[in-house]
Amino acid sequence: MSASQIALVYGTYLIATTSPGPSNMAIMARAMRSGRRPALVLAAGVVTGSLFWAILAATGVSAVLTAYAQALVALKIAGGLYLLWLASRAAKSAMKRGHDASGVALADEQPRYRSLYRQGVLMHIGNPKAILSWVAIMSLGLREQSPAQGPLMVVGGCVLLGMLVFGGYAILFSTPAMVALYARLRRGIEGVLSLVFAVAGLRLLAMRGG
């Protein structure tokens, strides 16, 4: 693989990953709400979901899936409903007053790591855009003359970039300044997060016939 080809693949993935979306917003909000470790666990789930689709794309399975409209429709509906469920949870949180002055969640609101990890995985697996994105990335990075280690270079490099991006959001937004900002604007931030989830979920449901 040429350097320009690798740069194109990594650049495309980096732009897609850093663009605002439900996963990024969820990691940012979790970092400000609960701190660095819970946000990193959520980010790990998102990366795992991305790796799932990356492996399927590398083996050609996701290309087969995209050929079956019914499979994509089912995935869009499931992903849309899950995002709407997350939107309702964020809306309920926005209406609560269950945070102390420091902006840290009360003891009974402390997140469970397994649940956070599962949320990150499901957010990405339930997003059919991830399938199409990985198919596009693989088509950019792999050619007939590509070396046998080509898929490993594409998947490995992109997953590493994903870890840096999502982990970076978790670290950046868990700083004291961001936590203090969340303490002041918690209800507004949760409201925006609810709106992002709701819009993304409704868009998936609206796309189910396409």
TrEMBL record:
InterPro entries: LeuE-type. The keyword Nuclease does not apply. Keywords: Cell membrane, Membrane, Transmembrane, Transmembrane helix. It comes from the Bacteria. The keyword Hydrolase does not apply. It is found in: Cell membrane. This is LysE family translocator. It comes from Comamonas sediminis.
